[in-house]
């Protein structure tokens, strides 16, 4: 294959649109803070986690492909690379949660009011060795620091490879070290940030569930990015077969997500133990149940049925729509993990205009960073071994 | 075999090859020269032959889908009928219509129907059955030979030209064979 | 071609017939409906329970007291037969058994499925009459198993009779019955434990 | 090259045909004969003990009122798990276009089928009246019709295992048809020719058939992949749907699936290290294959380790007294030693595979695979035994020890497994010839997107 060293330069139309979204989102967030600060913090958490996991998915995807010794994806490598460049900003946004601890995490109030025993909760007392603010923030710092560290390592090795240095074994080593670390840190992080919203509830599969969502929508985003770049005239060498591979991954992981979803829901339903069913009792009550069903329809049923025939996995337009649906679907999934847990203080029952605008703002910010990173290096990795 | 020929005897001109690439190239040349390829016999699946011979993609997937869907619907309705309508029993306080609990069995039946029906469809379509009189043209096919079979259709078949093309494309051996169908 | 079709059709019908027979056999595992074995003594329920109107409980003394109705012991027979029909060869068999102190080897007719608990007294005291399960026993010269005695047969009766609601747990049952006695249930553990 | 060659040396198609066909037409060697006799002896022990159990009943087992199932269900889960590697290799790796699977998928699939046979024995005996085993199928009956309970995970097992067995068998057979034709064309002797001729269904190597055949294989792989996941998912639900602490945990389904793959790959290693040596297949089942398998063992072993940690952490995090007790009991209770064995074998041992030396030395791999097999058996034992022996009610706590009959039956299943496997390597082509040939035959690197 001929070396392709085209450079991505974003259109000003795209840039302006992203900037506009950032502005609108910021205003919406400020307004919501005055209206209902719990709901605002809920939105911050949803979007922080959403875009953080999108960035992480880039890093994870690269690491997995390297350990698997796969070659087909090399032409697309810049996209996950650029996705992970959002990590530092995502980390910064995550740290703002410190200000909203009491609005989001019921256990943090308990921790503060232990002395004057405003709330006494025997179970939470037991957990306070883990669920307390200093340790929570410390863990957050460690997790984010480690992820950022690895993302920098990968990026550096990748750029060095463009200059002709032999990075393959380096990539392999980083990936092998990163993957186990990621497995532990991400499961704990999802416990900390999401599961502890409902601190009495527990489910061992939860870390895997958030991971499956992360990976699914990471791939969905990559596919979407490929199609969008192609629409703008880049990545001309990406052909139907590459799309087919991405389509298969989207299909497979959508089903994987549904599998994990089913395992968690069905086992909790079947055993019917009160301290576990509480999670689903909230989410299947009539006010939320339509979203609960929609979640499964958007993230699995529709993509599954559409992507089943071979031909649809090879069509850019089909993939684009399915991936958009999945990206919205994953947001909904997170919304359902977060909002019902804090609903008793916010009375939020509906996805309002604010939610949409704030998410668009986050999306704009993510797009800006992504485009900047994409334009920083040639769109195709230069001198990667699998390309020769 | 998709050829519908009512002739009792089929005459074939066979070109034997010992190399995949040469054989595929020969198929392309022959087709370009206007010859219909009756079939190619190979020791393993040669992917590029699909394109070279101009074969359509198999539609077995549709069979699988329909059979699987049938299995799914049948098993779901059957479980619903037995547990809710025909003879419901209160076991462990679970509701009679425990659709969630019906999913595992329905899933298995879907797979079972899909797999078995597809295999059956494959056998029927490819006419594979025990004691079939095989068209084994050469035992070396199941070893290391690739054989291009051209049927000598009455009138239109230019044997000389075909022979020449086979030789030119690197056939290691050329044979003729008649098969009674 | 026609020959091939014929062979296929024949083998399919043979297979179908065998399958039908197989399912039929599988269905009826352990079902002895209509079982009417020879007994060591030609005792007739028709004469005793039918013509002479002897109450069932006169002989089957356990039916309202315990799990088993009980086969009457020989001395119950002899309550009457010391005086009545003493010369009958069948009665002589009873006498013989008594003298030699050997039990009469009656052949058991009614067998419930394995692993099921059944208690006569619960049923008798809840107003189930003997004929509900044993059929028109007062007309039988030789005892015959009238009903299938399968689980489905039991449950269908339990369903039909309904479940009485224990007054202290008004929400327990699905069906309400006028009878206040607890006369049945549909849980597995009612019979299988 | 970044990717190692898939088979060693330059083999021609003819050599390949001859090498794989040789065992089918020659007298067995000493190693095979000894192995077969040992396996047969174990099988006979098993058969006689099964007959004894059927006659006397399962009172011959060490079960009691508290521990209603123990050794049998442990062995059942163990054997079903072993089977998973076969389907994984043949189906999932086919979908992912991992070409290294071609040399080993045939034997791995055979392993699946034999392992599932071994697994099925245990629930069958545990029924107590195995002659009534057909009661597990939903057919109209005189018990109601008392239909089978579709809400019970045990019934899901019936459907999962029988579907799994059927589909695996069909997949195995379908994959073998072209090779059976190869054997047919080379068979000496009338009986052999007839049998292989019958089995190969008149396969003539037609490309029109090949084209459809490849589509069929992809479809079957696509069906077998979710199937294999569902099977161990359902097996895990035998436990996870209950309310016993340590059993009811939502991570069970994926964790059991990964554990099954882990143990299955260990068994594949055990078998292949021996097979390649005894059958002289080093050329086709290379060190590269063993290394690839070793990597899978490393990954799955680590995931299993992560699952152990997740369970422990969540038990503590739950703040639930019973959960916490269940896991404390696992580690320091009367069966604590089994937990220690489990952690050592399943989590610590595979970590040695980080070293290339370990991954590429067959003898070391063999030892390691045996250790993992033992560890995975103990994992099932730990899960089943620790939770069951000490549940909510201390007065019903009890301990369990397997009897001679149980241990003997377990040994008997190994006899069955190895007898079948040893017969398999003598009568059927042990390497998928046509698939390896397609690698040999393609001169050019075939990484382009072709499927």
Provide a concise account of the structure shown.
The complex is a heterotetramer of chains A (388), B (181), C (193) and D (451). Chain A is mainly alpha-helical and 388 residues long.
Explain what this protein looks like in three dimensions.
The complex is a heterotetramer of chains A (388), B (181), C (193) and D (451). Chain A is mainly α. Chain A is 75% helix and 0% strand. Chain A has one domain. Chain A contains 16 helices and no strands. Chain A starts with 11 loop residues before the first helix and ends in a 14-residue tail after the last helix. The model of chain A has no long low-confidence stretch (mean pLDDT 87). Chain B is of the alpha+beta class and 181 residues long. Chain B has five helices and four strands. Chain B has helices spanning 20-32, 47-53, 60-86, 99-126, 159-168, and strands spanning 9-17, 39-41, 146-151, 173-180. In chain C, helix 4 (74-81) packs across helix 5. Chain C has helices at 2-27, 45-51, 56-59, 74-81, 89-100, 120-125, 130-134, 151-161. Chain C has eight helices and no strands. Mean pLDDT of chain C is 83; it is low at 172-181. At the B-D interface, strand 2, helix 2, helix 3 and helix 4 of B face helix 1, helix 5, helix 6, helix 7 and helix 15 of D.
Kindly give the count of domains of chain D: 1
* Shape label of chain C: extended
Question: How much is the radius of gyration of chain D in Å?
Answer: 23 Å
**Which range best describes the helical content of chain D: under 10%, 10-25%, 25-40%, 40-55%, 55-70% or over 70%?**
55-70%
Which structural class is indicated by helix and strand composition of chain C? mainly alpha
Count of helical regions of chain C: 8
Number of helices of chain D: 15
Give the low-pLDDT segments of chain D.
444-451
**What is the name of the CATH superfamily of chain D?**
Formate dehydrogenase/DMSO reductase domain
Provide the helix percentage of chain C: 40-55%
Defining key terms:
heterotetramer, A: 388 residues, mainly alpha, 0% strand, D: 451 residues, Formate dehydrogenase/DMSO reductase fold, 15 helices, 70% helix
